[in-house]
Amino acid sequence: MEMVAAARLRRAEQRIAAMRPYAQAIRKMARQVSEAAEGTIPRIPLLETHERTETAALVLVTGDRGLAGAFNTQIIREGLRLKREFSDEGARVVFSVVGRRGNSTMQFRGEDVANSYVGFTDRPAFSNAREISHDLIQGYVDGELDRVDIVYNRYVSPLTQYVRRQTLLPLEEAEVYGEGIPEPEAPADDELAEAHRRGSWFYEPEPEELLPMLFEEYASLSVYRALLESAASEHGARMTAMRNAAENAQDMISNLTLEMNRVRQAEITQEILEVVAGAEALG
Fold first, then answer.
1. Domains observed in the chain
2. What is the DSSP letter of 144?
3. Fewer beta carbons below 10 Å: N end or C end of the chain?
């Protein structure tokens, strides 16, 4: 299981690296479209902050399987802590849970699980992220949700993952790309950079119509990144847990073998003493 997790971890790391050029391109496009639509930006619900946070949604990203140490437990613990925090402020909390482990645990605790998404945590696709973000966006636009936060395991290395909370909606408070997504390098030639900035860009549809679509892509990309980070963290945690389990089993085998040899030696010694005692008694 450790070897399988290590192979899947490498593929998950590659997928995270492959996402970065897309993130850079859509960020650059959004900046250009915003400049082109300056003064004509329409009302965009995803940018509007609600006056009061009466209902907050927490998206908990867990795994479909166990045997990964504290990977799932620490997400559940953080989600319940955030629920108490929002409840103290007078807000109602609804959960959207990714992964069978988190979903079963939250339902067992009697929590309000509005949406559950299972069956893809090992290898999430962008379509999965789009489905999740669509449900959240629809709830926010319809006024059913006033805030959306996502909680997932941030991948650092196979030995290090930590729980991270990220605001998804409203977008004004969101960190869409977050750490690990560097800005694209500027052209070395200043004249080329200036010419590129002054170039004529034609948009279809118009910039003010394009912006809402880009913001929806922002939200989907943010969810997708959390799914990829969580998948890599799960494989890393499982690889580490299985290695520790194998090492602990080996230590246990060594200790039990030593104890067995001691008992066996004691029995042999006892038998020899009995034979010697019997020989002396007959002698």
1. 2-240 (3.40.1380.10)
2. S
3. C
Q: Report the alpha-carbon distance of residue 79 to residue 91 in Å, rounded.
A: 14
pLDDT tens per residue, the chain (283 residues)? 878 888 888 888 888 888 878 877 777 777 777 666 665 556 677 777 788 888 999 999 999 988 888 889 999 999 999 999 999 988 999 999 999 999 999 989 888 888 999 999 888 999 999 999 999 999 988 888 999 999 999 888 888 888 999 888 887 776 544 444 444 444 445 565 556 555 566 667 776 677 778 878 888 888 998 899 999 999 888 888 888 888 888 889 999 999 999 999 988 998 888 888 888 887 6
Residue (of 62, 130, 143, 131) closest to 95 by Cα position: 62
Q: Is 178 helix (H, G, I), strand (E, B) or coil?
A: coil
Non-local (6+) Cβ contacts of 230 within 8 A are 61, 62, 63, 98, 121, 124, 152, 153, 155
Contact 94, 112 (CB under 8 A): yes
Cis omega before residue 205 (within 30°)? yes
Helix or strand or coil: residue 142?
coil
The model's pTM? 0.77
Please give the Cα distance from 125 to 131 (Å, whole number).
Answer: 10
Structure tokens at 194: 């200036």
